[in-house]
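To illustrate the input format used throughout this study, we show a single complete record. The first block contains the structure-token representation of the backbone; no residue identities are included at this stage. The design step must infer an amino acid for every position from geometry alone.
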């Protein structure tokens, strides 16, 4: 999400300065790669780059291809085979053992404006959306229709479809939102083969930190780097100040424990961390949160503090459901030997990321299969009717 927002800003700046641009998007991957489908990079005609499609190895060649796209004003699909032992001739030497399909689209004229409008709509509010992109791998000289349609969780649509039935595309887009997983489908339209990449666009993580002590600052800074949106709440006016948390995406509020939900909207991407260092304040907030479906509640402090909280809830006649127990993480964070505030922040942020992605947190070297699920990248063959 943060990458898309940065790309929109860079595009608007380029337009103001009269620069031509192109958008490179990873639309499919076979095997391993540094970035996954949906990774994007904006390239200006004078070599300014925003975003990335790899760890830095493909960007140089993609820039050269983007200049051709800008000059021809025609989209291009580029294939990078990083499993090829001769890939060193491109100056890459990736060793990623994957085949990466990158769609490069010109952003000039009405077509460019339409693509940016799709991205703007996808990031305009806190809701899931499906972004539809058409491309052809079998015939790279065939039209690359590119990013053309978007459906939001609230059934709002933007864009147009020149091929394939709108009903078919919208049904797939709804499935992607419902299943929270992007899809790839292949359609045979006469003599033409079209791959439809229906990409799940998720709202940014909303991190709510209860407490505004010094140890909260690195947590919010790291969240900012990840493109998360942060809200800091504290009952102490001297701590809950904008001067202490100047990060652009962070909101700071002075709030009583029983009033925090007046400042916060909870959705599936909202997570809480209780670190006020005030037992009663944290407990009061926890009681409020238990009345709402919450994905993650981290509680700073030792096991003893967490046990005291659970015992007190029981004494007050509050019995936690299995889902509530699953959501509460106390002590908060992964066990990485953290000591300093910065190390603790890494531990907390890493646990939240793992929770949101339902990821096993064991070392990658112990993982025997692929790092990313290959099944999620399978292109499903199907059929439809052109219009």
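Output of the design step:
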């Amino acid at each position: 999400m943060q990458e898309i927002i940065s790309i929109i800003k860079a595009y608007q700046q380029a337009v103001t300065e009269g620069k031509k641009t192109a958008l490179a998007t990873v639309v499919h991957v076979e095997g391993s790669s540094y970035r996954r489908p949906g990774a994007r990079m904006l390239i200006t005609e004078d070599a300014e780059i925003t975003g990335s499609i790899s760890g830095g190895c493909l960007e140089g060649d993609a820039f050269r291809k983007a200049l051709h796209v800008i000059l021809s004003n025609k989209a291009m699909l580029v294939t990078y085979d990083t499993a090829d032992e001769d890939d060193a001739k491109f100056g890459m030497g990736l060793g990623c053992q994957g085949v990466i399909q990158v769609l490069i689209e010109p952003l000039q004229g009405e077509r460019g404006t339409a693509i940016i409008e799709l991205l703007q709509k996808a990031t305009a509010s806190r809701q899931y959306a499906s972004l539809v992109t058409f491309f052809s791998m079998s015939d790279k000289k065939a039209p690359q229709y590119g990013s053309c349609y978007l459906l939001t969780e609230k059934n709002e649509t933007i864009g147009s479809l020149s091929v394939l039935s709108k009903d078919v595309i919208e049904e797939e887009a709804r499935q992607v939102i419902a299943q929270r997983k992007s899809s790839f489908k292949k359609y045979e339209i006469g003599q033409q083969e079209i791959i439809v990449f229906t990409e799940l666009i998720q709202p940014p993580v909303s991190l709510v930190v209860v407490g505004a002590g010094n140890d909260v600052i690195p947590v919010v800074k790291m969240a900012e780097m990840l493109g998360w949106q942060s809200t800091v709440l504290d009952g102490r006016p001297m701590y809950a100040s904008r001067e202490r948390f100047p990060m652009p995406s962070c909101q700071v509020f002075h709030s009583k424990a029983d009033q925090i939900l007046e400042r916060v909207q909870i959705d599936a991407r909202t997570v809480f961390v209780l670190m006020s260092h005030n037992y009663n304040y944290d407990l009061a907030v926890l009681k409020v949160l238990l009345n709402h479906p919450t994905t993650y509640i981290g509680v700073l402090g030792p096991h003893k503090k967490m046990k005291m909280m659970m015992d007190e809830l029981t004494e007050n006649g509050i019995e936690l459901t299995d889902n509530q127990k699953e959501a509460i993480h106390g002590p908060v964070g992964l066990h990485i030997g953290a000591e300093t505030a910065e190390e603790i922040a890494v531990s907390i942020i890493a646990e939240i990321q793992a929770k949101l992605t339902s990821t096993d947190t064991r070392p990658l070297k112990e993982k025997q299969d692929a790092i990313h699920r290959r099944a999620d990248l399978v292109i499903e063959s199907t059929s439809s009717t052109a219009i």
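Structural context for interpreting the output: The longest strand covers residues 21-31. Confidence is low (pLDDT under 50) at residues 88-93.
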